[in-house]
Design goal:
The protein contains three helices and five strands, in the order ααβαββββ. It has 141 residues and is of the alpha+beta class. The chain has one domain: Nuclear Transport Factor 2, Chain: A (Roll), CATH 3.10.450. The chain has a five-stranded antiparallel sheet with strand order 1-2-3-4-5, covered by helices on one side. A hairpin with an 8-residue loop joins strand 4 and strand 5. It starts with a helix and ends in a 9-residue tail after the last strand.
């Protein structure tokens, strides 16, 4: 029942932003990598970015799953690899913009795309930025 209540909260937030469009029914796709409580706390706007939030264990799991892609793209091995902050963008799937601490005051910004579950739900590193300072905000790239 708790999952239903959280989903209803999320649906109400989404509907309140788009009710002027006259839609009677709102469908929301929930990522298997993010729990319902995290989704319900997000300020979700389809196509828009959420506000920057501290990374959750679920965001760290996403980072861990694509770490090999990050290391391949940068040509570096990262013994320290900790998600610190993130933003989300709901599109035909989900874009995650994640700030990752990689040691020695250095950070990466990752853009990770997660397909909808009906399309396989795969994670893909679509872009990254290197040599990011800790206080640099996460912006779309």
């Amino acid at each position: 029942m708790e999952g239903f209540v959280l989903l209803q909260v999320l649906q109400n937030r989404f509907y309140s932003r788009f009710r002027h469009m006259g839609h009677q029914q709102v469908k929301i796709f929930i990522s298997p990598n993010i729990d319902l409580e995290t989704k319900a706390k997000m300020d979700v706007v389809c196509g828009g970015l959420s506000k920057q939030e501290p990374a959750t264990p679920e965001i760290q799991k996403i980072c861990d799953k694509i770490k090999w892609q990050v290391e391949k793209k940068t040509g570096n091995k990262f013994p320290t690899y900790t998600a610190e902050f993130y933003r989300m963008q709901v599109v035909a799937g989900t874009n995650y913009y994640i700030k990752v601490y990689v040691g020695l005051e250095d950070h990466l910004h990752l853009k990770v795309f997660e397909e909808l579950p009906c399309n396989g739900g795969q994670l893909e590193l679509t872009s990254l930025q290197e040599n990011i300072y800790h206080h640099a905000p996460i912006e779309p790239f």
